[in-house]
Amino acid sequence: MNALITGGAGFVGSYLAEELLRRGFYVMVIDNLSTGSFHNVKHLQDTRNFSLTVGSVTDEEVMEELIEKSDVIFHLAATVGVKQILEKPIESISNNIRGTEVVLELAHQKGNKKLILASSSEVYGKSCKVPYKEDDDRVLGPTTAMRWCYSESKAIDEFLALAYFRDKGLPTVIVRLFNTVGPRQKGRYGMVIPRFVKQALLNQPITVYGDGQQKRCFAYVEDVVRGIIALSDHPHAPGEIFNLGSTGSISILDLATMTKRVAGSDSDTVFIPYHEIYGETFEDVRNRVPDLTKVKKWINFKPETSLEEVLGRVANYYRQNPDLLNSEDRN
After folding, report:
1. Which residues does the UniProt record annotate as the domain NAD(P)-binding (predicted)?
2. 173 and 191 share one domain
């Protein structure tokens, strides 16, 4: 089968490409390399069943040709990271909504190709009801807090995908990802684990935003990728929404402590107010935990990699790539 991955040079996309190649797929990737990186897929370039197109999912001519050749589409292309969203809100909204619109319409025109849409836990907003279940109400802040524009754009993506399923018969599956982590993830867009690990390995102060008591659940990227592929294979998954992640909740302060232990670091921990990083209107989410009941029932999904193992793998990745450890993440 031919698989198309939009955003396939990104963090999750590159792992998805590897796993599909391992399973015998011909893998086509398109990425504009704005947040993705050629470094992520460089090792795949000489693989016979792999091709990379540097371009945008909003380019209808390019996308038409790629979708024509594909049997299944994994739509991961999107603006990512809280910092990126706050710095470039217009670009973020346009990329997320327009890109999804183009992909859905062409997938329909070219024979209703199966499409897996990567959404985000951000769609739940700041609801205090945990764990988050797929059909829970959404709770968002005011439009003056630009952080929520990402949540809104991903929700529109989901509505579009469900509308194409119901009105046009396009087999779409929606997966909401919760803090997917591992080697290759960039820290410059606000991702906490690469930032903590780099600081620990360099014995720099570990910078905890806010009071550090906010809690998150982190899932290893290879576990998540296997879940995405299993859902793409399930004959009854189209038209459904699934959480994918881990239920192992940890405070960001405890994460900093664990990171120092795994890295063998003597770094101090320092606290930085949110407004110094994200501006005065930023709103935090205190606790974010997915309910995995549905995905466990459908595909027997269960995260297999502990957070301590993940931190060790990220640390080893930077040790093996000292140019990335000692410089800004690059394309």
Report:
1. 4-311
2. no
